[in-house]
Every structure is written in structure tokens, then in C-alpha cells.
């Protein structure tokens, strides 16, 4: 009984100590966020800090819906934009784990008529080193932006464009590569991309508030997206989510993104070998390293390694930073593409990292 009591007291002390730390940074975090999210009657955002897999700070700012005057909530659902790429990359690695493909495979193995497909590998697509044309930079994009496109139609839209460089020659962030990856997921798994992500990732990780985006479906707790014009705020431009597809069409919440991070840490989705591949730095043809793994930028804050990625899609901007050495996860979502959470999230991560060491 004595040993149990001592253990209990130590646990309570550790918990209360961490709570004090969390409380001590609340005002500083609020201050960092209020630099850009300071109008309670404008579109706003939500922010979360998690430590050791548990949220220690969650707050909402501004309005989730201007027409209804609805206040933002930490439970609101946001479009993720390019943070979708994390899920696409992990889905590819899950298929490799099942021996259904290899990241070293050339894409001609799956799409025989793809130009230069015998030289472009899945690895090139994952790391933005393929050299294929980014469809978001094509002038003709407006012609299909609101059309319902199949994955094959999307691939056909950009596949015959001149390449920007030879595979592996340089790193150049590329949405087309991740659309191709989504198409490969469908070809290899025999499932639609959105179904594969829902069944094999969202369900396994317990992400019940996450889904493939839709402007038609009724989505509980949806935050509505806005643009800012000279005349004021306007509703976001409507697009077909079949266009960004596996490069940017998922939706989620703060709490679900924490479940995602925890699932990665606990090897619920990937074994340790495949996880290491996602978070490794790779080299170009000339041997130079670049700071992108599979679906994440691999950077650092004050020489402390981080895994991070942002997203931007009409009406929304998102950002998340994870510090593996301290198990700190910071996420920020905005429902106006006029207001990015990126700098706030990075500053919060740096502040939290420093406080955790004190």
C-alpha cells in the first residue's frame, strides 16, 4: 500500500507540474495567435497544442459562419488542403507494407502509357522530385476547376505537358505527383481513394470526424470558408474536389488530427520500417540532401528536428508541426485563405519546446 501511495503521489505531482507549465504558456500562446486572429466578428481559426499525445491547449477564435454569426469551436471541421498529402503518402506505404507495390517501382508498371513512366518512380512522386508539370500552374486549370473528374481524367489532363526537369534532378513541390499517387492507390487496391483512406486510415485511427471533402453533403460542425475582398468577406470559390483529389481534398478536426499523429507514433498504421521511410531525408541525383520525406517537410526549430506541413485551398489554410524528440504536436486551422496560421503554429511550437525543457 505504501509503494502504491508513493507512486500515486509522484504521478499526481508530475501531472500537476505539467499542468502548471501549460497554464504558464497560455497567455503567451494567446498573444501569438491574436497577432492575426484578433477580430471576433471575422472568420477565425482553431489551435491546439498536444504533449505526449494529450491536448494541453485548445482554443477557437472568430466565426465559423458569418451568415449565421456562429462562433468558432474547437470541434469545427476544416478542409485540410495539402495536409492531405500525409494521408496519401501513408496509404502508399501501407500498400508497400502489404507487398502490393514498392516505392522503387516505376509508374509505367501501373500506367504503361505514361510519358517517361519508365524513369519516374513512386519515390519521385512522394518526394516531389519527378519533374512532371504541376497542374496547379497550368493556365487551362480553370477549364476543369468545377468539373467532376475521374482520377484518370486528372492524370490525362497533365501527363502530356512538357516536364520541368529529369526525375531526381531537383526538388520542386508538385501537386500532380500526389494526384498520380491517389490514382495508383486506386489501381493497386481496387478501391476508390476516398474509400481506402476512410476504411484503412480514418477508421483504424478512430478519426470519426474526418472525410473526403464535399460542398454537397451536410457535414456536422463544418467551418465555412471565406475570401477577403476590398468590399469585405465573401464565400469561398466553389471547386470540384475531384480536381485536387489526393493532393488536397480531405477534411478533419483538431482532435482527429491528434488521433492521426498518435496512430503514427504508435505504429497503428505503419510498422517501424515503413514509418522510417516516411520521415527520412533523401538525396537528389547529385547526392545533395533535400528536406522532404514522404508527405512531410523535415525541418527544424532552433536545431531541433521537426516534421511539418501546411495546406491551402479556397477558403482555408492549415498548418501542423510535430517535434518528435519532445512529442509536441501543434496544429492550426483558418477558415479564411486571407489568414494563414503557419507562422503562429511555428512560433507556438518553438515556445512550447523551450518551456518543456525548463
Automatic annotation (TrEMBL):
Gene Ontology molecular function terms on file: hydrolase activity
| Residues of the Beta-lactamase-related domain | 30-339
Task: Give the signal sequence positions.
Answer: 1-22
Q: Which domain of life is it from?
A: Bacteria
Q: What is its EC number?
A: 3.1.1.103
Alphabetical list of InterPro entries matching this protein? AmpC-like, Beta-lactam-related, Beta-lactam/transpept-like
Q: Which UniProt keywords apply?
A: Hydrolase, Signal
The UniProt entry's coiled-coil ranges are: none
Name this polypeptide is given: Serine hydrolase domain-containing protein
Q: Which organism is it from?
A: Flavobacterium ginsenosidimutans
Amino acid at each position: 500500500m505504501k509503494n502504491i501511495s508513493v507512486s500515486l503521489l509522484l504521478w499526481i505531482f508530475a501531472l500537476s507540474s505539467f499542468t502548471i507549465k501549460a497554464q504558464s504558456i497560455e497567455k503567451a500562446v494567446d498573444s501569438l495567435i491574436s497577432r492575426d486572429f484578433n477580430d471576433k466578428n471575422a472568420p477565425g481559426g482553431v489551435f491546439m497544442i498536444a504533449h505526449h499525445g494529450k491536448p494541453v491547449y485548445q482554443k477557437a477564435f472568430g466565426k465559423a459562419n458569418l451568415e449565421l454569426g456562429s462562433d468558432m469551436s474547437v470541434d469545427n471541421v476544416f478542409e485540410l488542403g495539402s495536409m492531405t498529402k500525409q494521408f496519401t503518402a501513408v496509404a502508399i506505404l501501407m500498400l508497400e507494407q502489404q507487398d502490393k507495390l514498392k516505392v522503387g517501382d516505376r509508374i509505367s508498371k501501373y500506367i504503361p502509357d505514361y510519358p517517361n513512366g519508365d524513369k519516374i518512380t513512386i519515390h519521385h512522386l512522394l518526394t516531389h522530385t519527378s519533374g512532371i508539370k504541376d497542374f496547379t500552374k497550368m493556365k487551362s486549370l480553370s477549364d476543369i476547376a468545377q468539373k467532376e473528374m475521374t482520377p484518370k481524367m486528372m492524370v490525362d489532363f497533365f501527363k502530356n505537358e512538357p516536364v520541368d526537369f529529369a526525375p531526381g534532378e531537383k526538388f520542386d513541390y508538385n501537386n500532380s505527383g500526389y494526384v498520380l499517387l491517389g490514382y495508383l492507390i486506386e489501381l493497386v487496391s481496387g478501391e476508390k481513394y476516398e474509400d481506402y483512406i476512410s476504411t484503412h486510415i480514418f477508421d483504424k485511427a478512430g478519426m470519426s470526424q474526418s472525410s473526403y471533402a464535399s460542398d454537397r453533403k451536410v457535414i456536422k460542425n463544418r467551418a465555412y470558408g471565406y475570401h477577403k475582398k476590398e468590399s469585405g468577406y465573401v464565400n469561398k470559390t466553389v471547386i470540384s474536389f475531384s480536381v485536387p483529389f489526393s493532393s488536397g481534398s480531405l477534411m478533419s478536426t483538431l482532435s482527429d488530427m491528434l488521433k492521426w499523429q498518435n496512430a503514427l507514433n504508435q505504429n497503428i498504421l505503419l510498422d517501424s520500417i515503413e514509418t522510417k521511410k516516411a520521415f527520412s531525408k533523401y538525396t537528389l541525383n547529385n547526392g545533395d540532401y533535400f528536406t522532404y520525406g514522404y508527405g512531410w517537410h523535415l525541418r527544424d526549430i532552433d536545431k531541433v528536428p521537426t516534421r511539418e506541413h501546411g495546406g491551402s485551398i479556397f477558403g482555408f489554410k492549415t498548418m501542423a508541426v510535430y517535434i518528435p524528440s519532445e512529442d509536441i504536436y501543434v496544429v492550426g486551422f483558418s477558415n479564411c485563405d486571407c489568414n494563414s496560421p503557419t507562422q503562429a503554429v511555428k512560433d507556438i511550437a518553438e515556445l512550447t519546446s523551450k518551456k518543456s525543457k525548463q
